[in-house]
Amino acid sequence: MSSRTAVSSLDAVVLAAGQGKRMRSALPKVLHPICGRPLVHFPVRAALEAGASRVVVVVGGAGRAELEAYLAAAFGDRVTTAVQAEPRGTGDAARAGLEAVEASRVLVLCGDAPLLALADLERVVAGLAGGAPLAFLTCVLDDPRGFGRVLRGPGGAPLGIREERDLGSDAERAIREINAGVYAAQVPFLRAAVAGLQPNNAQGELYLTDVVAAAAARGGAAAVVGGADAVVGVNDRAQLAAAEDALYREIAHRHALAGVTVRGDARIDDGVEIGPDATVEAATRLRGRTRIGAGAVIDVGCVLTDAEIGPGATLLPYSVVTESVVGEGARIGPFAHLRPGSVIEAEAHVGNFVETKQTRLRRGAKANHLAYLGDGEVGEGANVGAGTIFCNYDGFAKHRTVIGAGAFIGSDSQLVAPVTIGEGAYVATGTTVTADVPADALAIGRTKQENKLGYASRLRARLRAAAKR
Ligand code: UD1
Ligand code: CA
Fold first, then answer.
1. Residues designated catalytic
2. pTM of the model
3. Residue 108: is its pLDDT beyond 60?
4. Residue 6 DSSP SS3
């Protein structure tokens, strides 16, 4: 039998219909974000990587539409859902999932386990090779509290799993080998076993864990001992935070091995792409679909969401970039704010306390200090002085400001949109521009200065006398 056939006969079921009461949240547990994706993303992806042809996610009532929409968008038709009408326990959830399974073997995972190691899953699937009806993942923890414990017979063979609430003796409580909630099974066996489950336990639920005893009674359950960190199942928000810390460390480690300098507590979401020789400094947050080019520097405290940063670009400290593009060799910040729709082309500069939105700075353009550039375009090599404002909003609609190549906008100018400044034009400092400026013209709109000679000391004398009265 070829390995191809073996691979194609594996489906997976991911249990995700529980309410997640311990999260104390209106949001279903498996939709809580971790490293930029809903919790459920990770076990589903792990199941696909472990060779499942299809993944059936068991969903419940709350948040079902949202969960189904996410899965369809993220995984397409390799992932389907099955509905568990009432949360009657993990055994009942597995039963619901099995109804949609077509393969001869199945991998069952929990939707709240984001850190599963691929190697562990593969070993559990391989545990079926000897003809065992069931294999399951265990691990030995210093603190096993909250987990089901693995009961073994005198010869060491697994006999069953006992849930924390059902532990009968101190000896059972002292067992440090726990059930990780990962199972591989022959489908006919598992269908029969879940059909026979009884709710005789502290929670009155149908426990999937009871299938281990059923397998033990029938030819044996193979226990595969995995690594400790792999099993952090998320039940409450403290565990979510711990799992997220671990996952962020893992992601940073992966980028480091791929040639990225990652410092301190930089947090890089799952799915972010970073080119070689880039530097990601401490306290940065790289979120969503962010992509960083080779050799770029993302300095301390930058927050990037769905940002595209070109090769060799520099983001100086505490810059915030959202749904925007920064070109090759451009320089941003410190303290710059690129809001959605900003495009900063190659070699352009956006300096401190400059805010942009829906605005393109063409190649080599500069806005180095204190400006608001909204709904506009700055031509190649143009210079926007300190304190410039694109007055883009009249209280009802947004209007565009267009600045031609090589133009110079003097400091403290207001450009009242819609308005166009021609190529190479000058706008004098302090001008309020309300009409288009032709190319190569100078626009100046300020009152003429008058110097009153000797007036300052006369003024002081008058004010001093007034103060004495
Ligand atoms: C479960 C195991 C426990 C194991 C632990 C590993 C059982 C009875 N216990 O406990 O032995 O040590 O995982 O993390 O299986 N779910 C449903 N429908 C339900 C109930 C749960 O789909 O009716 C889903 C949940 O959404 C969750 C998963 O099953 O993703 C596990 O349920 P949970 O309540 O978290 O089980 P644990 O108490 O953690
Ligand atoms: Ca759990």
1. 369
2. 0.92
3. yes
4. helix
Domain of 332, in residue numbers: 260-443
CA torsion 209-211-216-220 (nearest 10°) is -100
Q: Nearest-CA neighbor of 218 among 132, 347, 98, 154?
A: 132
CATH of the domain at 315: 2.160.10.10
Same-domain status, 104 and 221: yes
Helix (H) or strand (E) holding 349: strand 349-361
Q: What is the pLDDT of residues 60-83, one digit of tens each?
A: 977 889 999 999 999 999 999 999
Q: Which residue's CA is minimally distant from atom 22 of ligand 1?
A: 17
pLDDT higher than threshold 70 for residue 238: yes
Q: Is the dihedral of CA 165, 169, 172, 176 positive or negative?
A: positive
CATH number, domain containing residue 144: 3.90.550.10
**Burial class (CB within 10 angstroms; exposed 0-12, middle 13-18, buried 19+) of 455:** exposed
Is 162's pLDDT higher than 80? yes
Q: Do residue 77 and residue 158 come from a single domain?
A: yes
Above 50 in pLDDT, residue 443? yes
Task: Judge whether 428 and 449 are in contact, CB under 8 Å.
Answer: no
Distance CA 120, CA 107 (A): 12
Q: Quick: pLDDT tens for 183-210.
A: 999 999 999 999 999 999 999 999 999 9
User: In 80-153, which residue ranges form alpha helices assigned H by DSSP?
Assistant: 90-98, 118-126
Asked if the structure places residue 455 within a domain, the reply is no
Please write the tens of the pLDDT for every residue from 6-23. 444 999 999 999 888 999
Residues 321 and 425 occupy one common structural domain: yes
Statement to judge: residues 266 and 333 lie in one domain = yes
pLDDT digits (tens, 9 = 90+) for 393-426: 999 999 999 999 999 999 999 999 999 999 999 9
pLDDT at 309 over 90: yes
283 and 218: one domain?
Answer: no
User: Which DSSP letter does residue 334 get?
Assistant: S
Q: What number of residues does the chain have?
A: 469
pLDDT at 1: 38
Atom of ligand 1 nearest to the CA of 16: 26
Total domains in the fold of the chain:
2
User: Which residues have any ligand 1 atom within 6 Å of their CB?
Assistant: 15-18, 58, 84, 87-90, 92-93, 110-112, 147-148, 161, 163, 178-181, 207-209, 233, 235
Would 248 be classed as within a structural domain? no
Residue 231 has what pLDDT?
A: 62
269 and 393 both lie in a single domain: yes
Q: Which ligand is nearest to the CA of 42?
A: 1
**Nearest atom (ligand 1) to Cα of 231:** 14
